[in-house]
Amino acid sequence: MNRSVKQIAEKIIGRHLFLEEGMKQSSIFEQEKRLNIKIPATLKELYLTLGNNALFTDGFHHFAEVAALFVKDNKLVFLQENQSVVYWAVDLTDSKTVYQTSDQNFDETVEWYSEELSLDQFIEMILYVQCVMSDESFHAKAKSGFQYFASLDISEYHSNEKSKNFIDTLENDYKEIIRGNGLRIYWDPETILMYFLNKENQISDMILTCTKDEAVLDKMIDAYGFNQL
Fold first, then answer.
1. Where are the domains of the chain?
2. Which CATH number applies to 5-126?
3. Predicted pLDDT at 1
4. Distance (Å, rounded) from C-alpha 146 to C-alpha 191?
5. Which of 63, 91, 154, 200 has the fewest beta carbons closer than 10 A?
6. φ and ψ at 149, to 5 degrees?
7. Which CATH architecture group holds 147-228?
C-alpha cells in the first residue's frame, strides 16, 4: 500500500484521526493468540486506527469486531456485506488475496471466489465506499465534513449530454482512486463520486456522490441532473 490506512482515512475526511478512534493493540493481540494467527498488517492497521470509528467500520458494510473474527479454510473472515449476503476474507497464507462468499453456513463447505484487488487495494476501496454510502448520522459522528449527498440516475446519464460528458470526463477534475471490482471511484478534497459497472463494463445503475461543499451539490443538481438524497 502506497499510503497507510491512517493516511487514506485522513485524506477522505480531511482531518487528523484521534487515538481513541482506533483500538488497543492488546485487544488485537489477544484475538491473534486465541486464533493462533497473525492478522495481516493492513487489516491490523485498520483496527488500530479506525476500529472505533463507526463511519468506516459500520457506515455501510460491517467490519467484524476483533473478538468476532474467525478463520475458515485458512481465510480470516473480516467483512460482512450490508445485507448480510456476502462475506469477505483474506487468505492467511499470503496475507493479500481477498475472497468473497455468499455461503451463509460456515460450519459446512464454503465456495470462495477471489477478488481482483489485493487486500491493500480492497481496504482502500471499502473506506471510500463506506464514506459514499453512509448516511448523515455516521458522518456527523465522525466529523467527516460530508453533508451533501446526491445521485444521478442511469437514464439521465444516457439522455442528458451534459451529464454524460461530465461523468465520462471525471478524470479532468477528479483523481481516479479505484478502478476494479466493478467500481470506479473519483476524489477531490471536497467530493467523492462513485459508480458500479456491469459485466459489459458499462455503468449499471446510478452515479453516487457526497460532498462537503453546497455549491458543488448545487452544480451537480442544476447542471448535470443529480437528485439530492
1. 5-126, 147-228
2. 3.40.1580.10
3. 58
4. 8
5. 200
6. -135, 140
7. 2-Layer Sandwich (3.30)
CB atoms within 10 A of CB 66: 21
The three cell numbers of residue 194 are 462513485
N-to-C CA span, the chain: 33
Return left, alpha or beta for 143; rule: phi > 0 is left, psi -120 to 50 is alpha, else beta. Answer: left
CA distance 177 to 125: 8
pTM summary value? 0.95
Q: What is the pLDDT of residues 128-173, one digit of tens each?
A: 999 999 999 999 999 999 999 999 999 999 999 999 999 999 999 9
Residue 143's alpha-carbon distances to 16, 45, 136, 138, 156, in angstroms, are 11, 21, 10, 9, 32
